[in-house]
Amino acid sequence: MTVSESKRLVDLVQSDIDAFLDEREPLLASIGSDLAPFIDFSRDLLRGGKRFRALFCYWGWQSVSGHVPAFDVIPDRSAESDFAAVVRAASGLEIFHAAALVHDDIMDNSDTRRGMPSAHKRFQGLHDDGRWTGSARSFGDSAALLLGDLLLSWSDELFDSGLQALTSPAARVTARAEFNRMRTEVTVGQYLDVLEERSWRNYPEPDLLSRAHRVIVYKSAKYSIEAPLAIGAALAGGSEKQVSALREFGLPLGIAYQLRDDLLGVFGDPETTGKPSGDDLREGKRTVLIALARNKLPASSTSLLDELLGDPELSAQQVSILQASIRDSGAVEHVERIIDHNVALAITAIEDAPLSQASKQQLVQLADTVIKRSA
User: Fold this and answer.
1) Are 293 and 333 spatial neighbours (Cβ–Cβ below 8 Å)?
2) 170-214: pLDDT as tens digits
3) What CATH number should be reported for the domain whose range is 3-371?
4) Which backbone phi and psi does 167 adopt, to 5 degrees?
């Protein structure tokens, strides 16, 4: 798949998402004009992003099927074609991701998402503008929680629509099982993330790194890369050996993906990431990066890190102090080595795998894109 073809797939997914929202908009409008923000905020959120989940879903399918579709033809959403099914399933994954982002921003008290106010802040703005009664923050959180729930429901609808377009009944069952497994894993992974932020002091120091690694695996690595690949392979009726190879590629790459995200969450450029510098520091994320820094820092610096981490009112100067402390500890270089190691594991896993040669080449290119990103 060339760069232009990759962009074409992303365009098809965007078109499919837009069409789906167009179909749902009249129902909400018939209930009342007050529901317009649910469609408007969904459209805005779903116009952005890198579409990694859609791309990995497609390449999981293509690596097994070996089929190269005609990208110059938009698949009919009512057509009984496996390619249309893959586009629809990939679109469902992107809506699921949007739902997870809405919920994640509420839990993390994040004010921005992709350079815009996060959903709960936008609902809070409606409350402020209307001078409604009660707490604007409570309303914003409650409304955004419901938006996230609605997006979860819609992701299931669109994914199921894709399954119905599949020609293989067995593939429908397997792909649905993979989708269900992904939803369970990312939900409990999100809980583990919240748990670590609050309970880390209750565990022995040597356990903190492994616990942070567990969060990476279940909150992000599996659902960002491994699950989309497995779902795509299931849509094509992949064998156990094929799916296993894709998992062995997807999990370490997913870990590397999240480790890069953790670095960006501390050191990323706000103009590129769309989030404030040091956002993860204000949110108190107990990441692998933080666990490694704590292991390497002297006791006085560790105490300062623990004292400041998680303070939502951190000043720019305090963020700079923490950034310098983490960088000076050597934790950044350590994380970079872990990233390189996991990427190497991923690439090795598919070298001799029974997958199409074109797909293996593209997966290696995607791995490079995932790791070298700046947002």
Assistant:
1) no
2) 999 999 999 999 999 999 999 999 999 999 999 999 999 999 999
3) 1.10.600.10
4) -85, -20
Query: Scanning the structure block, which residue is given the tokens 């802040």?
Result: 121
The tens digit of pLDDT for each residue in 45-81 reads 999 789 999 999 999 999 999 887 765 555 555 445 8
Residue 335: per-residue pLDDT: 98
Whether 311 and 278 have beta carbons less than 8 Å apart is answered as no
Q: Nearest to residue 56, comparing CAs of 345, 344, 249, 213? A: 249
Q: How far apart (Å, rounded) are the C-alpha atoms in residues 49 and 55?
A: 12
Element (H, E) at 113: strand 112-113
Q: How far is CA 115 from CA 74, 97, 140, in A?
A: 30, 17, 18
Contact between 64 and 233 under an 8 Å Cβ cutoff? The reply is yes
| Of 110, 103, 120, 278, the residue nearest 191 (C-alpha) | 103
Residue carrying the six token digits 């981490």: 309
Q: For residue 116, list its beta bridge partners.
A: 113
Distance CA 187, CA 132 (A): 33
94-142 pLDDT tens trace: 999 999 999 999 999 999 998 899 999 999 999 999 999 999 999 999 9
Q: What residue type is assigned to position 344 of the chain?
A: A
| Distance in angstroms (rounded) separating the CA atoms of residues 122 and 137 | 10
Distances in Å between the Cα of 280 and the Cα atoms of 65, 261, 284, 291, 292 are 40, 10, 6, 13, 15
**Would you say the pTM of this structure is higher than 0.90?**
yes
Put residue 226 in one of left, alpha, beta given phi > 0 → left and psi -120 to 50 → alpha.
alpha
What CA–CA distance (Å, rounded) separates 92 from 85? 10
